[in-house]
Amino acid sequence: MAPKAITKLKTRIRIRILSRRTRGHSLAQMIASLKEKLLGWKAYFDEAEVLSPVRDLDKWIRRRMRSCVWKQWGRRSIVS
Predict the structure, then answer these.
(1) Residue-range domain boundaries for the chain
(2) Tell me: the pLDDT tens digits for 28-45?
(3) Which one, of 41, 31, 29, 37, lies nearest residue 13 by Cα?
């Protein structure tokens, strides 16, 4: 896998799927669209058996999903 391909995938995911974190999309909708994109990407790069970039990509996607969930929860006010 070329680093350019991974960067391009991250950009597309960031802009098209995970940037919608403030637009009222549920987590299930984000996961469905993310699944569609990742399955296509996996089918294309299926012959490459490189685990390191895939692990790093998985970590990155999980971190982005957590940030989306935290953003949807909103801020908690501190009551004194």
Answers:
(1) 28-72
(2) 888 888 888 888 888 888
(3) 37
Structure tokens at 79: 């009551």
Whole-angstrom Cα distance, residue 29 to residue 74? Answer: 19
Among the listed residues 57, 64, 15, 66, the one whose alpha carbon sits nearest the alpha carbon of residue 38 = 57
Q: What is the pLDDT of residue 78?
A: 57
Structure tokens at 33: 């669209």
Whole-model pTM: value is: 0.69
| Closest CA relative to residue 38, chosen from 20, 62, 21 | 62
Dihedral (CA of 3, 44, 37, 68) sign = negative
Look at the block and give the residue holding tokens 């996996």: 42
Exposure b/e, 34-65, CB count within 10 A at least 16 = b: beeebeebeeebeeeeeeeeeeebeeebeebb
Reading the block at residue 30, the tokens are 């984000």
